[in-house]
Amino acid sequence: MAKRMDLLRLYALLFLLLSIIYFYLNLFSPKTIPYYARLWPLPKNMNILVMGLDVAYDKTKHVQLSETGHTDTMILVNINTSSFKVNMLSIPRDTLVEIPGYGWQKINSAYFLGGATLAMETVEKFLGVPINHYVVINPKGLIKLIDLMGGLRIYVDKDMYYVDNWGGLKIDLKKGWQKLNGEQASGFIRFRQEPLGDVSRVQRQQEFLQTVLKRLATPAVLAKSPWVLAIAAENIKTDLSLKDILFSLNFARGLRKEDINMTIVPGSFSVGEMNASVWAPDQEALRDIVNKYFSKKLLAKFEPRHVPSSSITIINNTDDFESVRQMMKLLYNKEFAIVNVSTQKKPGVSRTQIIAQKGDEPGAKKLGGMLGIKDVLISGTGDTQSDFTVVICNDWKEFLEKSISR
Description:
With 406 residues, the chain is α/β, with parallel strands linked by helices. The chain folds into 2 domains: 46-293, Aminopeptidase (3-Layer(aba) Sandwich); 310-405, Alpha-Beta Plaits (2-Layer Sandwich). Helix content is 38%, strand content 26%. The protein has 12 helices and 19 strands. It has helices spanning 2-28, 109-127, 139-148, 182-190, 198-216, 219-222, 225-235, 242-253, 283-293, 321-330, 361-371, 394-405, and strands spanning 46-58, 63-80, 85-90, 96-99, 103-106, 133-137, 152-156, 160-164, 169-173, 176-180, 236-238, 260-264, 267-268, 280-281, 310-316, 336-342, 353-355, 376-377, 388-392. Strands 11-6-1-2-3-12 form a 6-stranded mixed sheet. The termini are far apart.
């Protein structure tokens, strides 16, 4: 009888020891455990659109404008529980797409025009894959998170210097391995003053994201989980449930470097006859990426899309963003692509006007007829990255209100 009791105690002790090892490995070294044997496995595959806001500033009042920024970062994240992979597709902010209800524009305008709902709808139309959830990150939250982690060691690929006193942005980084605090890390992923602009920046963002995911899985950061969740609650908007968030984070902790595939929308900076700073997707190459990483079945070939040959920059000389939205709606399905929207007011202009900076007076008058704008100026003072510049003033807002009331 005594021997039997000793054997039971031995089994109980062994079970306890194995349980402790199992829970320890799940908490601190999940990569050593097969996925099916891990705690809290994610029950389903998901496509999540992750967006980082480019905070807009009122350059006159020197204050940050809330909920009016474009997206500075846009990444489609596919969590595949079957292959235990995470696939990411970065979409450059200057990618030219059709935004439902607003026509051809840079994709970073989608959130500005209709929030997360329109951004998801735009990406679904662009890529042909369903999006289940969204995550919107305020830049302040990223800064706080990096500081909470005690900084981030990362390789800076070149000297970076850029100062925007109006926008509250200062970037001053030296090439080489650096330990960046929150502000410096934010500058590292936002810097785009270089020949490839947003494409090089997206590549840095991917490297940065891999480093952050690796740090989040360390015991030192796991011990700060309550503070991490507090920062997330304050600076992140999402339609993910708390359960999905926790299970997704647990899934990410177990990833190896080779389990993460990162790609970028392939393309070039030339769009038909337009000489504008837009990223034109290579549809065939993009289809191959989508089929390989985001879809189980081959998609039908992308239909050829007619890209407008003329481009517009809108300068908002009012304090009303609704005027910009209404102008975009009027231009929907017309022969123009909106490649830039600026909140930096044009001094000395009090009446709405169209500037034909490339000398196309007939095209400017045609555009004016669509928008109800008679003042056309042939001048090099417009945005050289587009064909026409439309400066919206309060008189056009009043004209629009009268037209709607009729």
